[in-house]
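Notes from the 1:1 (GR / supervisor)

We went over the backlog. Supervisor wanted to see one worked example end to end before approving the batch request, so GR pasted a single chain during the call. The sequence is below; no edits were made to it. Supervisor asked that the structure be written out right there so they could see what the output format looks like.
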Amino acid sequence: MAAAAVVAEAPEPWPEVDLVEREQRRELLLTGPALEERVRAAGGRLPPRVFSLPLLHSLEVCGCASLREPGPGLARGLPRLRSLVLRGNALGPALSPELGPLPALRVLDLSGNALEELPPGRGLGPAEPPALPQLQSLNLSANRLRTLPAELARCAPRLQTLNVARNRLRALPAELFALQLLSELAAADNELQELSPAVAGLPALKTLDLANNQLSEIPGELADCPKLKEINFKGNKLKDKRLEKMVNGCQPKSILEYLRVGGRGKGRGKTDGSEKEESRKKKRERKQKKESGEGEEEEVEEVNKLLIRILHVSENPTSVTVQVNPMVKDVRPYIVCTVVKGMNLRPGNALKRFLSMQTKLHEDICEKRTAATIATHDLKLIKGPLVYRAQSPQELKIVPLGRKEIKAKDLVRQLQLEAEEQRKQKKRQNVSGLHRYLHLLDGKENYPCLVDADNVVISFPPITNSEKTKIKTTTSDLFLEVTSATSLQICKDIMDTLILKMAELNKFTLENKEEQSLSDTEADGVSGPFNLQSNQNAEKDSSSPLIVEQVRVVDMEGNLKVLYPSKTDLDITASHITIIR
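Structure output shown during the call:
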């Protein structure tokens, strides 16, 4: 009888937790049919053992209809947690206990639950001091929320992306517009009746989606958001019918300009006659400048600008296409690609400067590859179409930069051993090189990879590229990719920055005459007369534009997912750059 009692009280097995404890992993994923029964046995919450993993950086629990609350001890037991994904469960109607404080958390996904409110004490955590001081991405979509907590901006002051789509919100709290770093706000498919003019208080806002709400007006102050590139107001019955027609068919730039001048003829401030007079005045000024020689200076200044020309898919029948396999959704779902032609990496240290620039971007805006990863390839060595997919570590093979062909599983293990040896030699916890990014793959059943038409893996983000497509001094046409587990907009922003830096480097190389670098083995077959011709053309090409070709990212059925650069990408206002579209 006693033995039977012991068997009845035996805890449910949690092999995933055992594995994380045993191997001191930083990522824990709980999903699948077996999870349902175990959570139900634990009283609709996670077992306390989950909250006794102090090294954990990422916790993901998805698709469990039995999970009604995370359980007590989360904040206290997981102080290093950076990513918390509790998507598609049954959390609600509030969070009990509240989540925070989680001082290191950057990504929080509570989408697809049954949350109705997030009040103080049963929400995200306290506002003073901030419960989520490092949070950058918050996803509350597909719940039943009628209001957002007024203290959200103080609870998560560094928030950059907020998704509250598909709820029952009737208003956005005024305090929300104090988020100085907020760049993406998605609130489509709610019951919003008004957008406050205080939206102008979001200086970093780039994307605003308020489609399918109950808005009757759009405040003119929206046009004062300096970085706003993408807006969506479709599905709202606006009083201004001309504006309603514009939001369903015009580009964001045209809509914002209409709002800026006050809508339907208001605020334009100039009659047709005064506009003509203004035009004549400008012509006279240009003529006077030309006669005095100032016009020549302006022409010289225009020549000295960085020129970037965008080649559209319709102009390029041989454009590269990237297919995305749905398996990457659970690994690293976001990818943006493009082609850049016209780089000159031959002279002096041009290639070294290019590679150093890429490393610096990885350290800075890519946040040491945690936000995104850049990969650059020699276009001539790529055979399309390309496929972005996920493979098991045992099946994925790659020839990493500077190494021989190896399975991904063995490469990761090799890098782990190298990292351990590096720690022992330098007697410190931190490591350098690729070893710093190994934790980003912890707990992943499959690894992301980009594969060419010959089924050769050319990229294994966020770890390495293939030796096959390595950039050399002879490379002039490049295929660029940016991948992320966080956000598509992050990929686009980083690609914008990468192309701008490439244009600046190219102009520097062309204007500063350096001797050709022929020390690389890849330049062995280049003849003397060819190099001489290159030098002679360098000065001539100093004002030639860098060509940026659009690349389509599609699903496996060929439906468009991403086109880069689109009309809203590379929207650079710097005075030293000219974008030719």
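Supervisor's comment: The first helix runs from residue 2 to 9.
Batch request approved.
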